[in-house]
Amino acid sequence: MDGPNVNRKVHRDVSSELEKETGQSLLNIGSCGLHVVHNSFRHGSEKSGWALGEFLRDLYTLFKKAPARKDDYFNAAGESTPKLPLKFCGHRWLENVPAPERALEIWPFVLLYIKAVRKREASEPSCKSYQTIVETKSDQLFTAKLHSFIFLAKILRPFLEKFQKDAPLAPFLVPSLLAVVKRLYSLILTQEAVAGIKDAADLSLPKDLPSSSFKKESEISLGHQAELALDKVKTKVSALKIKDLKQSFSACVKEILTRMLQKSPLRYTLANNITCFNPDTIKRQPEMAQRMLCK
Q1: 137: domain range?
Q2: Structurally, how many domains does the chain consist of?
Q3: Low-confidence ranges of the chain (pLDDT < 50)
Q4: Computed over its alpha carbons, how large is the radius of gyration of the chain?
Q5: Residue 200 to residues 93, 152, 181, 287: CA-CA distances in angstroms?
């Protein structure tokens, strides 16, 4: 799968050859945005320090090609028939949500399996993947973190699905990206600060915004399901750990936004002005569409 750097290199080479032969060059609206958005999410997840990607890969690996281990897992579940983990592959755009959702669904059965191992009712695996799962079990904020991961992935997934098509979608690119960026900023910025973002020209990197624009940790929401999971363990964890969780979530969102704003088509004038062919822009803002067309 080609990345944005490959796309840019091909564009430069083709444009250079075309200019030599015809004196004209290709128009540039930047990369498609798919790689940028997905990679921004990956970097943001890593910035959080939660190591959820490693957990999801190890959960799948634990039962992959291990028939005896699967039997122990099913036996530990009693009369229930639990599902198996799904493969998590960080470079596949649309697979960020199903794997963690399945992990949450089967987590109670995984805990039963670990309990059976400790009671010597099942063989103890000596592999690294099992140690990762056992270590994760001791993290009382784990389910809140995983729900937050899913929450952020679902904000990005509609964009990834919409633009992974062979169709002339360039006029819709910047409005869709801008909507995603504003949604992400709404998680960490005050309502007043978000209201000031009207178009791509109003966007700034998180590091360039004044501290007064950001919400306090207590005002940051990790997503509805994550907040419910957090409520269940609030009496068991310290206020400092909850504060650290909110800070790491905020750091994750900031990293996603920074990567998106630095590398996405939002930076390109043509990508913004081609919005003049967007039917919604023509209908709602005809004068703006006319100005964009003439630029």
Answers
A1: 29-40+49-294
A2: 1
A3: 1
A4: 23
A5: 24, 21, 10, 18
